[in-house]
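TOKENISED FOLD:
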Amino acid sequence: MLVTLSAVVLFGILTFALLRGRIVGPLAATAVFLFGFFTADTGVADAIRATLHALADAASNLT
């Protein structure tokens, strides 16, 4: 749960920074948000979560 919340905060800050810097427009940000939202509702969501969990575990074991 902590990893998920951290990812949400990280991607939220990244999205805000990209929108604020006008690197990405509101339409592109909305499209990416909807892509992520609908991807989370598919069967691939479990594989994505497992991959992110494995990457988080690997990153915590680097030190």
Q: What stands out?
A: The chain has three helices and no strands. The chain has a mean pLDDT of 83. The helical segments are 2-20, 26-39, 44-60.
